[in-house]
Amino acid sequence: MILRLDRLQTELPPPSDPDPDGASNVQELLGGRFGEMSTLMNYTMQSFNFRGRQGARPFYDLVANIAAEEYGHIELVAATINTMLTGASPPADGRPPGDALEGVKSARNTQHFIAGGQGALLQDSAGKPWNGDYVFSSGDLVEDLTHNFFLETGARNNKLKVYEMSTHPAARALTGYLLVRGGVHQIAYARALERLTGADLTKMFPTPRIPTEKIPECQPHIQRGEHLKLYRFSPDDYREIVAVFNGPHPETGEDLQVVEDRVPEGAPWRDLPPQPAVFAPDYAPEEISEIAQRLRQAAGLPKEPTGAVASDGERGVVDKVVDKLT
Amino acid sequence: MILRLDRLQTELPPPSDPDPDGASNVQELLGGRFGEMSTLMNYTMQSFNFRGRQGARPFYDLVANIAAEEYGHIELVAATINTMLTGASPPADGRPPGDALEGVKSARNTQHFIAGGQGALLQDSAGKPWNGDYVFSSGDLVEDLTHNFFLETGARNNKLKVYEMSTHPAARALTGYLLVRGGVHQIAYARALERLTGADLTKMFPTPRIPTEKIPECQPHIQRGEHLKLYRFSPDDYREIVAVFNGPHPETGEDLQVVEDRVPEGAPWRDLPPQPAVFAPDYAPEEISEIAQRLRQAAGLPKEPTGAVASDGERGVVDKVVDKLT
Amino acid sequence: MILRLDRLQTELPPPSDPDPDGASNVQELLGGRFGEMSTLMNYTMQSFNFRGRQGARPFYDLVANIAAEEYGHIELVAATINTMLTGASPPADGRPPGDALEGVKSARNTQHFIAGGQGALLQDSAGKPWNGDYVFSSGDLVEDLTHNFFLETGARNNKLKVYEMSTHPAARALTGYLLVRGGVHQIAYARALERLTGADLTKMFPTPRIPTEKIPECQPHIQRGEHLKLYRFSPDDYREIVAVFNGPHPETGEDLQVVEDRVPEGAPWRDLPPQPAVFAPDYAPEEISEIAQRLRQAAGLPKEPTGAVASDGERGVVDKVVDKLT
Amino acid sequence: MILRLDRLQTELPPPSDPDPDGASNVQELLGGRFGEMSTLMNYTMQSFNFRGRQGARPFYDLVANIAAEEYGHIELVAATINTMLTGASPPADGRPPGDALEGVKSARNTQHFIAGGQGALLQDSAGKPWNGDYVFSSGDLVEDLTHNFFLETGARNNKLKVYEMSTHPAARALTGYLLVRGGVHQIAYARALERLTGADLTKMFPTPRIPTEKIPECQPHIQRGEHLKLYRFSPDDYREIVAVFNGPHPETGEDLQVVEDRVPEGAPWRDLPPQPAVFAPDYAPEEISEIAQRLRQAAGLPKEPTGAVASDGERGVVDKVVDKLT
Amino acid sequence: MILRLDRLQTELPPPSDPDPDGASNVQELLGGRFGEMSTLMNYTMQSFNFRGRQGARPFYDLVANIAAEEYGHIELVAATINTMLTGASPPADGRPPGDALEGVKSARNTQHFIAGGQGALLQDSAGKPWNGDYVFSSGDLVEDLTHNFFLETGARNNKLKVYEMSTHPAARALTGYLLVRGGVHQIAYARALERLTGADLTKMFPTPRIPTEKIPECQPHIQRGEHLKLYRFSPDDYREIVAVFNGPHPETGEDLQVVEDRVPEGAPWRDLPPQPAVFAPDYAPEEISEIAQRLRQAAGLPKEPTGAVASDGERGVVDKVVDKLT
Amino acid sequence: MILRLDRLQTELPPPSDPDPDGASNVQELLGGRFGEMSTLMNYTMQSFNFRGRQGARPFYDLVANIAAEEYGHIELVAATINTMLTGASPPADGRPPGDALEGVKSARNTQHFIAGGQGALLQDSAGKPWNGDYVFSSGDLVEDLTHNFFLETGARNNKLKVYEMSTHPAARALTGYLLVRGGVHQIAYARALERLTGADLTKMFPTPRIPTEKIPECQPHIQRGEHLKLYRFSPDDYREIVAVFNGPHPETGEDLQVVEDRVPEGAPWRDLPPQPAVFAPDYAPEEISEIAQRLRQAAGLPKEPTGAVASDGERGVVDKVVDKLT
Predict the structure, then answer these.
(1) In sequence order, what are the residues at sequence separation of 6 or more whose Cβ sits closer than 8 angstroms to the Cβ of residue D26?
(2) Do residues F43 and F30 touch, judged by C-beta distance below 8 A?
(3) Does B114 touch chain E (CB under 8 A)?
(4) pTM for the full model?
(5) Average pLDDT for residues F246-267, to the nearest whole number?
(6) Of A153, B200, C77, E47, which sits with the fewest C-beta atoms within 10 Å of its C-beta?
(7) Is-contact C256 C246, C-beta < 8 A?
(8) Which helix H or strand E contains C269, and what residues bound it?
(9) Do the Cβ atoms of D266 and D76 come closer than 8 Å?
């Protein structure tokens, strides 16, 4: 079971210049073989299928808990894609449908507009759907961990390349954050293998051989120590990760830490504006708002929506640090 | 973000007679077009892509919150498949590998053994991987809800058929529970459409046209009112589902309820035994236990694993009611 | 069994400026999940698999008959794609192959040229092949109809978006026609569900929430009442559709009509010119013509080809009305 | 455009012993790479994409007309699969769902029951969906015909093997008919290539090298000359096939014939009985019948359904000849 | 470029009892994600894409040379599948086709008979085709080697399980050989990573944690030192593998060796008998033999075929050792 | 078994202007349905599955030997793609990752950069992976040969179109060579069919109907007689191809020849430069070189790498002839 928090793990900038081709490439980080959907579902399925978990509890807890963090990563990638697509079709002008989408007819992934509502799809950068064959869950603990270390390595490679391919602020904020957090998972699986077999995989860091700290957009997160921490994403469970996730960081030598009592503060989602040309959430979104307002009233809810969303007026802490660096 | 609870939404029986072909069919409920992975990821992606969510907050909250419950459903299906596969290979006998898997060489899905460790795969009943094309997220609210109503209808059909195809206790416990909870989601989407358009879809219930209450394994859940309740799967968010999910149940006329302050009590996962013939979690699982024990000690953790698992000695409430009925 | 008529259901304009990227997007209406191949094969397979059809004859007739109309729709989309691709490679110049296709090397779908002869492929807008998983045929009548209503809703969404993405005259003529005819099918399935369950789905119209009549290219067809008529596409069969398809149009209130004695007049196919750079129908098409001429003579056929094709000199009725409107 | 006739091209026997595994293999003839869906859609797409068709009219007519006959073939395969699956679940007994499908839990294709209503799926014998990549439409006439000849060769191979694998009467009636008719198409494409290039492909007959006449179930059709005739499946079009389809039959030397004025008499579809365990057409089919009856009455239709279905009491001509031979 | 030798890397036993379901599982070792087609094409593509290969020559040579050995492995798996399928249909009896394949209608993979001629398909154990997404070729040397180590680990897992699932002599001879040779490749990639990064991956051996030497069918190969040798599969190239492949074997401590001057002696292919029921190589194979005989004579070739095939009369060395052990 | 030669079958020009979209189209010749991977694996699998091969030895030898040549063709296509991608990202500048890939963010296939290291992928021009369903291996010799003739025909069509779409020197050198060599294989299969059945398929040449000699880039190869020769790609085997491959060339009437004692001289691979922006072979390739140097020294290898690579200073014979012609 999960409890869902209506909040992102890190702040993303508001929509700026739309970038459909950029968004098509960021899809690799969502639905690609090494995307966040793959990390999420690999660790999730491995935790479901874990046999003899009491005997191997620290390892079970590690895999199950990282799985929980990955859910927040698919959120972030999806939010980034939505941000980059916002504005790619014109706002409503009260007129009947015309040629509102002609400007994107040569976009790399026109299904963002035809199938989706300028939103994320469960596809990679080539428009190929994510699929269950990307999940490896052999049940053999050493082998599953070997896979996970390799998967995080491939994921780091892909994040670095999407970083290099994208200057859109949302893509940069995303990759800066994911590189730091993915790095922690890469370390966690290397350490787990070391604990089980004695093989010192941490000598392989960094792979690709460029230190994370050289990426400007990673700096704010590193400065807050995010490259060292494994959060426990559960009210009461997964308490034994500390038995595996400890010792020195392979690159910096600093002590790795388990954060027991809180998850990343993060930020509320931005309420991305309707895109009526693609009928998201409707050709005439105000009708839905009126109905919603009536329903909320009838249910005795407050007049203003109870859900929190980011206010574009205030910029977050991360943004400000990034500002200084760039 | 999510917080993960190491607990199942309902209790499943312990392993009994292994049933590999049965497990291969239950896979449809995990990785089939209408399986729980589909309901999970459809509602999850729709919530990520929801534009203008403040204006449509009750609908956003509904979709996002049901998505959260679905996570618990993929857990249940995976646990059932693992249960049904347990025992299909012999226990370790200290000898080198022999013909431990010959007995399953004609099983419908031998990848349960070759690729997996007698565990669930992200596939359907034909061994085809779940894929991202099963996700529909148009951004158009009325259309997405229409899809969701149809999806739940197809899911109910598949659950009923897997029920009829399986007498294994785990499959029956699973389908009995899912039919009741899926029914609630089917109602929720029908009601949401009614609120937005005025169309009374509740007249279409039940589809297929067999009342849920006729299924014996559904009875315990119905008796506890589980067919009427929508749980809020979040500490603080998704408070506006109550604006949509209300009014009479389409079949019984009873009042629908939102449960604000707790999620289903459920039950701890069972700690399914190792299956050394498939190296899950190892050819010699006791070695892993010893390492784990040492690591836990070094980390100052208690001697006994801190995670809770079901004790086979005690049978759960649901089981007892089922006993009476069957 | 079918009898095939060498004629299109509506007239399409002659080739004008080639538009390969536009054609790549129109492919969604042929081979996409909600394309015409999907509507064709869903209803076709449902009719093949219909059990107890005498008892449910009006519903069987409805599904089987709409399937027959859909065949004409895949023809129209394919003809449009061919039209839009015509001229994208230069005419024959008697010289050996050179760089005739260099101008399209960055086209979205270069397989139009490499695999095809500047013709339609059975793919969607991302170049992914149509596949049999898009067919839903559960055998449960209420469920199949629910699916069909949802399918037509998704199809309408996609047609609207392809309309907005394309200003090419052929794409506009196509979508203008399909929106009107697909709307009739959407109504037919909603009405069928109403007849079976009492649920008034017609309140959900239009979805997406933009009336069809606002699309200029739909107007000529609406003015001829095409939004109200269901043609019987059979010499003698499917006579009971009238038992389901009746009552008021959900948007306009006008009476729905079954046309028993004729199918749409339509128009002959245009004879699209050879594209020798892609060897369609040959590198030297005149050789084929000569052989064909000899064979026809030997068979005692008239000197001129017996098949009718559209003459570019005369513009059709529809074109003329469109002219006025635009 | 097509006109659809509610009639099969040949008669199939009534359901007898259900044969789910047999049906799973017959699927190859529907949705396999060389199945009837492939022949249908290859020739259909080639006809849509045919450029310069006036100049090559006899060849266009040939391809377009054979495409029309193939539609009748997917009907026949689907009807066969439905026939073989009938009875594999028990008739309704008025009780709630139990274990009606347990008997088929180890069937090769359980999606016949879970996804379908004991009906045909658009899959091959391995449960893999038919897909658009099976369509070859290069636009190059010689090359498309070369493909078609190869496709018919592969199709003949598959029909022969499904014949050898199946003794179920419906499968035998199907393959007996399809072998004869597919043989005609194989000849037609070989002859067309001969007309265009001078290459005498007819020397390659038969491939595989077993004469069709040795198959007992082919005999009734051969005796009626069905191995020599190409029917024109159109009221008025495709008149020039006679310019290509003529000359001696490659195996027997008899004259090939074009039948201009009629299509095969065939037989009405059988009205296969409901299978309530899979909700086809409903859990309680009689309710649908009552509603249908009311609707027909309201529409002024006769009391008895107007559609013709085969009467199990009378056996067809083909059956009787088969009787004698076996 | 390659030179092909008409010889297998190790001897396989002659056909004995046919085992179609066994063969369907062995397919995993040919076309599965971790099958030999994957090892072949991963290393092959990595060698094609290797940039800066002069600077990294020992590593290039290693990858390119192992790729060459893998070709011999797909041969062996295919030969095994053919062996296991031989005899599953009856020999020719001079009669027309009857029900020769009825006995295999419930086989797990009937496409062995329908699509193939009782021969190997490029599929996995679920009948899913091998595909290019199984190839990982990032160009980053450390990452590609990490992948290769993981791939060999997964491959070893699958071989062990197919071993346990199969008692057919051909499957046992195959897996006994592949486990030994795959083990060498697993070591080679671990050593290469150690050379590049210093990480001692050899501590992870064996994975799964069962020593290869415990498998009786591996013993003959181990006794000949095959677990220590890397053959250079090239007349003149790939001379620098020796710079990487050296040092102690991770399990036994023995010295690893590069064999420079010869490849494994192996054994000729067996000439598996025709299976006329599936038309392999023909319905009447003797006709082909006669034609071939005439052609060879006309070309001045010797009267007896020049190609060498295994004689069933003599059993090979490996077989004899296996005999003793079992 | 194979022996691998570190050499290409023909010379390719050095990298010049990078052409990512061009490279994306050349992928069709590697991983497309009619690409070289298909020809390689079709003939390879057919040779593995060949039953009764002694009786049909000349045909077995033909198929097995052409398979061996095809391996060299996938090398050539991969090398071409690598050449065309070289330079598409900037050289290393010692700075941290920036926007090195922004220039290719709208490329047709961005996975060349994200998944690969500016190297070839096993995909077609639409980014769809090559898959095992492209392999046809029925075991029926006449049918397999019919397929092979058709496959080569489709391959020739695709090569001609990629030629017309690409003016990049590497693509032109590639297609010029492949058209000539593929033409030989097309003839070989036609002749084999003629030998077996008497059907004179050579009358169908050329298909598409444009003589190969009209392509300037084919001229150098034709002038050296490469359109007439079948090389025996084996030290000792496949000696009976001469029994089939003989007689006149269908277009020129010249005598076909079997080259027994040598394979094409070809050319060494070019050592394409690192592309550090995509980490190929590393972010800092010089580190790998230093390690390699040390390892080679320790192994007693010469100081200079032993492998031969093309020197960019000298242009090959083929290039010079092409120079004159263009």
Answers:
(1) D77, D80, D81, D84, D125, D162, D166, D171, D174
(2) no
(3) yes
(4) 0.96
(5) 96
(6) B200
(7) yes
(8) none
(9) no
CA within 13 Å, CB half, B17: 7
If you count DSSP H runs as helices and E runs as strands, how many of each does chain B have, helices first? 10, 5
Residues D7 and D267 sit within 8 Å (Cβ to Cβ):
yes
- A253-308: per-residue pLDDT in tens? 999 999 999 999 999 999 999 999 999 999 999 999 999 999 999 999 999 999 99
Residue that has been written with the tokens 């399980």 in this structure: E161
For the record, the structure tokens of C183 come out as 């709307």
Whether residue B140 contacts residue A285, with contact meaning beta carbons closer than 8 Å, is answered with no
Q: Is the pLDDT of residue A325 over 60?
A: no
Q: What is the dihedral of CA E66, E70, E71, E76, to 10 degrees?
A: 150
The ipTM of this complex is 0.95
Q: How far is C257 from chain B (nearest CA, A)?
A: 23
Q: What is the DSSP string of D138-159?
A: -S-HHHHHHHHHHHHHHHHHHH
Length of chain F (residues): 326
- For testing contact with chain A, the best of C19, C21, C24, C25 (most A CBs within 10 A): C25
Q: How far is B259 from chain C (nearest CA, A)?
A: 29
Q: Does D105 touch chain B (CB under 8 A)?
A: yes
User: What's chain E look like in SS3?
Assistant: CEEECCCECCCCCCCCCCCHHHHHHHCHHHHCCCCHHHHHHHHHHHHHCCCCCCCCHHHHHHHHHHHHHHHHHHHHHHHHHHHHHCCCCCCCCCCCCCCCCHHHCCCCCCHHHHCCCCCCCCECCCCCECEHHHCCCCCCHHHHHHHHHHHHHHHHHHHHHHHHHCCCHHHHHHHHHHHHHHHHHHHHHHHHHHHHHCCCHHHHCCCCCCCHHHCHHHHHHHHCCCCCEEECCCCCCCHHHHHCCCCECCCCCCECEEECCCCCCCECCECCCCEHHHCECCCCHHHHHHHHHHHHHHCCCCCCCCCCCECCCCCCHHHHHHHHHC
- D267-268 and D7-8 beta bridge pairing: antiparallel
The angle that helices A57-85 and A169-197 make with each other, rounded to 10 degrees, is: 170
Sign of the dihedral through C-alpha F17, F22, F24, F27: negative
Backbone angles phi, psi at D137, to 5 degrees: -150, 80
CB C322 within 8 A of CB C220: yes
**Is residue B259 within 8 Å of B242, Cβ to Cβ?**
no
Judge whether residue F76 has pLDDT over 70.
Answer: yes
Question: C216-232: per-residue pLDDT in tens?
Answer: 999 999 999 999 999 99
* Alpha carbon distance B248, B246 (integer Å): 7
Calpha distance E26→E158 (Å, rounded)? 10
**Do F157 and D143 make contact, defined as CB atoms within 8 angstroms?**
yes
Closest CA to B41 of F97, F66, F85, A123: A123
Residues 6+ apart with CB under 8 A from E14: E83, E270, E310, E312
Yes or no: say if F145 and F42 are a contact pair by the CB < 8 Å rule. no
Please give the structure tokens belonging to residue D97. 């769902």
Show the tokens assigned to F20: 């990512």
Q: Are F150 and D145 in contact (CB under 8 A)?
A: no
- F121 has a chain A CB within 8 A of its CB: no
HEC letters along D48-71: HCCCCCCCCHHHHHHHHHHHHHHH
Do you find a cis peptide bond into B248, omega within 30 degrees of 0? no
**E-chain residues near F195 (CB < 8 A):** 291, 295
Give the residues across from B3 on adjacent strands: A3
Query: Cα separation of A249 and A187, whole Å?
Result: 8
Placement of tokens 């003949």 in the chain: D156
pLDDT score, position C277: 96
Beta bridge partners of F123: F129
Kindly report the nearest CA distance between residue E215 and chain B, in angstroms: 7
Q: What is the DSSP letter of F208?
A: S
